[in-house]
Design a protein that fits this description.
With 114 residues, the protein is mostly helical. It contains three helices and no strands. It is elongated, with a radius of gyration of 39 Å.
Length: 114
């Protein structure tokens, strides 16, 4: 154990016969040390004056690129689906009936009162 922390085990408090703990100072000291270290570190950090504007511009560029790629992908898929449909319709033999040949009887209507 470190000599600095040798007394911490006694200060942390042991559970007594009644189940009551003694005063706990080790977490408080750790929290204070961390707070001081973070404060010292934060004092040396300085943001660039145009950091927000730069980050916002980068975000807008990425958003525009994403929308452009998505729009292009939608257009390509639509074009390919249209061309595939036209190819299938055009590859049917000339003497075959069309998609709607008109020779079928209409579906019977529901009986009245039913």
């Amino acid at each position: 154990m470190n000599s600095d922390h040798a007394g911490d085990a006694g200060e942390a408090g042991a559970i007594g016969a009644a189940g009551v703990t003694g005063p706990v100072s080790a977490p408080v000291q750790t929290e204070e040390r961390l707070r001081e270290a973070m404060t010292a570190l934060a004092g040396h950090v300085h943001a660039a004056p145009d950091a927000y504007r730069t980050a916002r511009g980068q975000w807008h560029r990425r958003e525009r690129r994403r929308r452009l790629v998505l729009g292009t992908l939608i257009a390509v898929v639509f074009t390919l689906a249209t061309l595939a449909g036209l190819w299938v319709l055009n590859s049917a033999p000339a003497d075959s009936p069309g998609v709607f040949d008109g020779d079928r009887m209409p579906a019977p209507a529901a009986p009245p009162g039913g």
